[in-house]
């Protein structure tokens, strides 16, 4: 990985071309999370907080080992716990899935964002929020199929996992990967990680009795730069609500593409109409005698 | 561990029981995952709760806390019945073929032969081998084990009779044996008979594990010996879930027996592996942080050992084996270890003329274990306590008794980095202001240094002694522990010098030859532990010379004539003339077995796998050529290998020297003779002191017969008919570390509150929902916390009745970030646990006691 991978290939809030767009992306990075060897130790949660300088949270126990119900604007990495009875009669499972930004190839947040350059996608695949440009509208939150971007009430901006872009650009792995004790987290190029994930899924199918083991790399968002190995890829919802077929909501797509054009058309049409109206009827005539009448009334 | 952390990656099969490594040893657990990923190793987890370890297992069995011996005994039975054991290994490397003395009786009624019901101890005379040579099954004496049952019990000792020293019971030098294993009194036949009672149905009724699941687990584990396979290896991994029982030592013994039966000890990926619960608890044990040991597991002298010769005679074993076999009997070197230790303790004051100052050593006249210390303080006999590096109020059972004990003490010195529950015992929950005013104990709180502020070594579970440097100096007035202790010692010595006293010599004559007596550098202490030559020495074989004053290369150089000094024989070799071996950082691993011979230093002699001779067949060839540890080199006429051979290097395989060189037999012990274990030569299932059922095997002797309950008013034990019907166990969480990280915000946010894990079915019965408060009471105290209603603990059928089991994490107390903020104290979990201990290791029974559960 190098800084070259930080070339921006897509930007929010503008239809203008991004520098480097269309260039072959050789350095696409990928985080592989093998949920079958995750032990829910939460080292990644703490590493994320410490690397990113995020602070202590007030939490409450809620009938689970899970630290909080969902990720928050300053808690970007959360293990989701679920007690799950296997459908095939294989008994109870304690499913643990590390939840964070999936860094979609087709990022719904970026598509939805109206602020220029507030969300960028780098050549290495990382989708990064630029809080300097964020206007805090929260549209990215509705654009994300994974419920990841969260609004920070103090800063009035939206935050999420950066895939440790600052580390990655220096050739380091993200902090969560570095802290993982069992090696259930891997980091590398997308093809490498995909191969590793497929190999592990095959091993699970052949040797561990998980007939439906598979890789989660959803096509609805053109694949993600965070992929999972699941014991049962046919039931991603069991892993703390991983969407079966995530897509960018049609409303977001609609307002960013056809509706945006319709809107633009309406704006331009309105302006044209005003101009034509002016040509046709001229300036509005104000009644001349109203003002003195008012003055009279006052006096 | 017989093996090591990294070595787990070499295994084909894991039985994880009495431990929860994914949560409590997450970094080490990576090697279990490696074995799964790279070798398709299988993992069986047996635990009272479906833990995070269980989430990665191939097979999980939910067991009732305290039923472990029943489960493992059933496994032995299955392996024997289905011929899934290592025949050659069993016959030649264990004592399976040795013949047991006539009169020995198996505990079909709950008692072995020789029980004295008044004193609650065994006369171990019959727990021995028979003298004699080769015997065969048909030409035996005719005495069968069942006939032995009719042997007359020894006459009960008259109460009040003067206590005479027990007559020494010795192992016979030439033991009787039968290599066909057919003689009815061979250890093998007795073991077979002992566990024939542990059928799946019986075991199921005790453990709560359905019989078909038991069989599945047994089949899977023993599959490494399917069809006579000797290549595959299985490991057994455990932690304090096995030790905290009134039969804890015997659970671990059962595991050792299984591993000997299947031929897994000494082999890469095998062994019996204790996961230690603290970064340096192995080091603490090695250095005799326990009352009945001297450093290096040498036995403590007792008052009957009137002089050095008498003591050495008692503690130095003589070989005991079939005449045609060889035995190294490494502990025959005990006098060298002891004399070198005395030289390290007392220096020039230890001379040949004065028995090397043997009389300076304290003699243990009775049990001074943890619960006894607190019991004696509670009775007003112990007046003060130094508590360093541990939080005594939180650790021990029956917290209220311990707090009440501290109230009776005159003084308490606590060395800590945080204000802890021990130094603030006077404000434990339930103590009123008026009561606080009545407490007269003076508490001295000394600010110590944290682990990152000290250098020194830590010994991990794998016996690796690893040196670390201090990262930062201690802040403010905090001082290093060794400085505090050195300065206290200097003051005490000055007082003895000035005022004399009953016996000042041991204090005045202790060596203290450090470059700065007030601030002894740990490097100098480490060198002292390694040992040095006190005179010029020469190895008669190699002619290698060591000059007086030089560091010793290893314990083979130790002498019993006062010419060497060594603070702990097993650490000899850790800091040699070549420098601190324990600080090495070489990452090469030529064998690929994870031996890393140049990383730190592993006791003994930098050996990574103990008893590794047993990884080879009788001819000295590795059982599995793909995992070659050591082997016999016929050309060189010696044992060589990737690991350091744990054996007499020039002992030819045809001499048939046993691989278990620390036993006088040279053999792994399936049967433990003459009371090395105090409650039986074979493990037998006994119920926990507080149990929901009577022992189905022998209701009249339900509990371990040699376990003695404590007798103060504070020591209370419950029965189910008092309404205490739920089995409770305690455990740790991955998010917290003992009682310490509740002072660290990062940990506190992960697990912010105490909770109690209860089964869904119990919650439904009580009308409780998750996160609602419940109250758990034992006969000793109660504990209120939120309920964690889970499907990970299921109700069990025990002895035909439905039994619930619950679990409570140990971490929360009444000092810490949350505790301080809330201003309402939280109860330490040990308010619930009973003060009753294992008769061998004296570990309290915190896993499996009785409670009742109510809405709070």
Detailed description of the structure:
The complex is a heterodimer of chains A (299) and B (856). Chain A is an alpha+beta fold and 299 residues long. Chain A contains 9 helices and 11 strands. In chain A, helix 7 (250-256) packs parallel to helix 8 (258-281). In chain A, 43% of the residues are buried. Chain B has 856 residues and is of the alpha/beta class. Among the domains of chain B are: 1-158 and 166-277 and 661-681, Dimethylsulfoxide Reductase, domain 2 (3-Layer(aba) Sandwich); 699-855, Barwin-like endoglucanases. In chain B, the strands form 11 sheets. Chain B has a 6-stranded mixed β-sheet with strand order 25-27-26-31-24-30. A 5-stranded parallel β-sheet of chain B has the order 3-2-1-6-7, with helices on both faces. In chain B, strands 10-11-12 form a 3-stranded parallel β-sheet, with no helix packed on it. In chain B, a hairpin with a 4-residue loop joins strand 26 (773-777) and strand 27 (782-790). The model of chain B is unreliable at 139-162 (pLDDT under 50). The chains are: A alpha+beta (299), B alpha/beta (856).
Q: Care to give the gist of this entry?
A:
Chain A is built from 9 helices and 11 strands. Chain A is of the alpha+beta class and 299 residues long. Chain B is globular and about 75 Å long.
The profile of the biggest β sheet of chain B is: 6 strands, mixed
- Overall residue-averaged pLDDT value of chain B: 94
Name the CATH architecture of the domain at 1-158 and 166-277 and 661-681 in chain B: 3-Layer(aba) Sandwich
The overall strand count of chain A is: 11
Q: What fraction of the residues of chain B are assigned to beta strands by DSSP?
A: 5-15%
Low-confidence stretches of chain B: 139-162
Content of β-strand of chain A: 15-25%
Total beta-strand segments of chain B? 31
